[in-house]
Amino acid sequence: MKIGLFGGTFDPIHLGHLRAVKEVAERFGLVKTILIPAAQPPHKPHLDIAPARDRLEMIRLAVASREVFEISDIELKRTGPSYTIDTLRHFNNLPGAGGRTYYLIMGLDAFLEIDTWKAYLDIFKQAPVIIMARPSTGAGTGSPSWGRVAEFIGNKISREYRCSDREARHAGGEYKPIHFMDVSLLDISGTRIREFVHKGKSIQFLVPEKVERYIRQRGLYQ
After folding, report:
1. Is residue 43 within 8 Å of residue 58, measured between CB atoms?
2. Tens digits of per-residue pLDDT, 113-129?
3. What is the predicted pLDDT for the residue at 54?
4. Contact 181, 132 (CB under 8 A)
5. Sheet containing 178-182: which strands, arranged edge to edge?
6. Contact 194, 221 (CB under 8 A)
7. How far apart, in Å, do the first and last CA atoms of the chain sit?
8. What's the number of CA atoms in the CB half-sphere (13 Å) around residue 118?
9. What is the rounded CA–CA span in Å between residue 201 and residue 194?
10. Residue 108 to residue 125: CA distance in whole angstroms
11. Cα–Cα distances in Å, from 170 out to 107, 140, 160, 173, 174?
12. Residue 165 — very low, low, confident or very high, per pLDDT cuts 50/70/90?
């Protein structure tokens, strides 16, 4: 069974998140994708984010009745920063995990900073990684973005990876494959949504209707 793991602050969750992850699920045959809101991003310790209960509730509203999505509050239950390696180990140690393959889903920018994450090399021992790239970045062979990624893999992860078009596989050992995919990354960001709300602008069609209503009712991002 293939299962996606997609983490982030989700402040707030928006249609760009959902569309991209949906396309990844279809491409890789993921049975479901688990959305994992972070308590406190370790790279943004001073980031002023909405309370965890509100971010979690917005995710619940966004994916209600959509069986392809699940939500985990595992990082919200931990104290301190949210580290991806701890989350991966949690899922891989669950009962019955031997019959599942967890795929870590992330954006291109995040991948190119992964060498600054806690125990980042162990991440590639825990799960295959799927990197989402905007079509305009050109993730295919010969493109500047692909060249950056391939160089990064060799310099920062392992020179034993063998890169082909949109995929890198390790020649041996414990390291898992790294996959690349162009997705319809809509020009939507949590920052823009928060700014729109603060300025009294509409966020219709940027977030699900239930999320828009929740933000208004709770007075978030004012």
Report:
1. no
2. 999 999 999 999 999 99
3. 97
4. yes
5. 69-71, 32-37, 2-8, 101-107, 129-133, 178-182, 167-170, 161-164
6. yes
7. 42
8. 12
9. 10
10. 19
11. 21, 19, 6, 7, 8
12. confident
Cα–Cα distance for residue pair 141/33, rounded to 1 Å: 28
What sections of 31-172 are H helices per DSSP?
52-63, 74-77, 84-92, 108-111, 120-126, 144-152
Which of 100, 80, 79, 209 has the alpha carbon at shortest distance from 88?
A: 100
The dihedrals phi and psi of 84, each to the nearest 5 degrees, come to: -60, -40
Per-residue model confidence (pLDDT) at position 141: 46
Q: Are 14 and 61 in contact (CB under 8 A)?
A: no
By CB atoms closer than 10 A (0-12, 13-18, 19+), residue 75 is buried
Q: What angle do CA 7, 10, 15 make, to 5 degrees?
A: 105
Task: Report the predicted TM-score, pTM, of the whole model to 2 decimal places.
Answer: 0.93
